[in-house]
């Protein structure tokens, strides 16, 4: 595999984005033009990649590395509001409304795990039950707080998915280690076992991971909104597995692995304009029932209609592992 140095990809707005036009309709059928950073196909021609953070590198070096790896592509981003046909089964994402939270201690990981994780586990159960699924276990395993003001990671402006098809095998390998590290300690504490990620998971149980994404601001989200690519428009050769040793300053063995997306003119992008504080975007980022596994690619993008000096984006994403007994009700 290649070893490619890169900056933390949760960065500043895309400096290559130019002025963009908005569709004539500003309502549910409206669209904006966004710029998305895709992995160049030439970057992965020699096989899978390994990306290491260059947090200590100078700005010029970071820009050179990023420019060599990614290509900015302009495309329309359509409003998903008013399109109930977009759901976890079809497009790989859905909007869950009516989920306000009174939690505010976002920068305390201990408090988030103790108080916010149970909220998200209930949301995951509710969303999957609306798709006809009986969830045996719903366990929130990690989260990321994002904040453009610098108090946390910035928006992730790279087309990606949180996992690859190797996810269960990597988790099993972590459980098998004599000395379990942070992620596996948390999983054990919250009730997950190696059996939930077993070799025969596709016949004994179904494993679905959802990313529950929300704005933490009291005002409608306009800055760096999240966009989702309809999974039906993604081909398997649009995906490149990338290992991330030292991801977000953490050293885990085996290392985290994500999918980066290659550009394809067939990709169809959607977003939820003016996302409110009681709304949660649900992304299906892993599913053992998907053969082949085609994830929900997603990325932040810069909406050209955002007013100047509008409130910066503050968001949190929580990943929930859902274990579903096999049977007639196990299909999305």
Describe this structure in words.
With 332 residues, this protein is α+β, with helices and mostly antiparallel strands. Helix content is 17%, strand content 30%. The protein is built from five helices and 15 strands. The chain has a five-stranded mixed beta sheet. The radius of gyration is 19 Å and the shape is globular.
Task: Give the tags.
five-stranded mixed β-sheet, alpha+beta, 332 residues
Overview in brief:
The protein is built from 5 helices and 15 strands. It is an alpha+beta fold and 332 residues long.
SS-based structural class? alpha+beta
* DSSP, total strands: 15
Question: Mean pLDDT, rounded to whole units?
Answer: 83
**Strand order of the main beta sheet, please?**
1-3-10-11-7
Radius of gyration: 19 Å
Largest sheet: 5 strands, mixed
Query: Helicity level, as a percent range?
Result: 10-25%
In terms of per-residue confidence, which ranges show pLDDT below 50 for 5 or more consecutive residues? 1-28
Please work out how many helical segments DSSP would assign. 5
Alpha-carbon distance between the two ends: 35 Å
* Overall body shape: globular
Beta-strand percent range: 25-35%
Listing every helix as H and every strand as E from the N terminus to the C terminus, the arrangement reads EEEHEEHEEHHHEEEEEEEE
């Amino acid at each position: 595999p290649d070893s490619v140095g890169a900056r933390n990809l949760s960065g500043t707005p895309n400096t290559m984005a130019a002025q963009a036009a908005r569709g004539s309709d500003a309502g549910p059928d409206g669209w904006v033009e966004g710029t998305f950073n895709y992995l160049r196909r030439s970057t992965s021609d020699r096989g899978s990649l390994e990306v290491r953070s260059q947090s200590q590198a100078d700005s010029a070096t970071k820009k050179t590395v990023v420019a060599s790896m990614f290509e900015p592509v302009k495309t329309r981003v359509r409003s998903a509001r008013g399109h109930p046909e977009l759901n976890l089964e079809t497009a790989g994402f859905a909007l869950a409304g009516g989920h306000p939270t009174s939690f505010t201690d976002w920068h305390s990981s201990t408090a988030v795990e103790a108080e916010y994780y149970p909220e998200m586990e209930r949301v995951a159960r509710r969303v999957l039950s609306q798709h006809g699924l009986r969830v045996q276990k719903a366990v929130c395993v990690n989260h990321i707080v994002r904040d453009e003001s610098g108090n946390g990671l910035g928006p992730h402006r790279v087309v990606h998915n949180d996992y690859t098809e190797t996810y269960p095998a990597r988790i099993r390998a972590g459980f098998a280690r004599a000395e379990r590290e942070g992620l596996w300690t948390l999983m054990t504490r919250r009730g997950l076992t190696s059996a939930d990620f077993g070799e025969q998971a596709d016949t004994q149980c179904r494993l679905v991971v959802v990313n529950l994404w929300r704005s933490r601001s009291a005002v409608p989200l306009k800055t760096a909104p999240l966009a989702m690519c309809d999974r039906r428009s993604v081909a398997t050769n649009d995906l490149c597995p990338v290992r991330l040793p030292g991801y977000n300053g953490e050293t885990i063995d085996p290392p985290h692995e994500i999918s980066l997306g290659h550009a394809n003119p067939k990709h169809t992008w959607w977003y939820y304009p003016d996302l409110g504080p009681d709304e949660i975007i649900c992304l299906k980022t892993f599913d053992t029932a998907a053969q082949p596994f085609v994830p929900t690619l997603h990325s932040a993008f810069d909406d050209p209609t955002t007013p100047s000096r509008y409130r910066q984006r503050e968001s949190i994403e929580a990943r929930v592992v859902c274990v579903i007994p096999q049977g007639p009700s196990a299909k999305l």
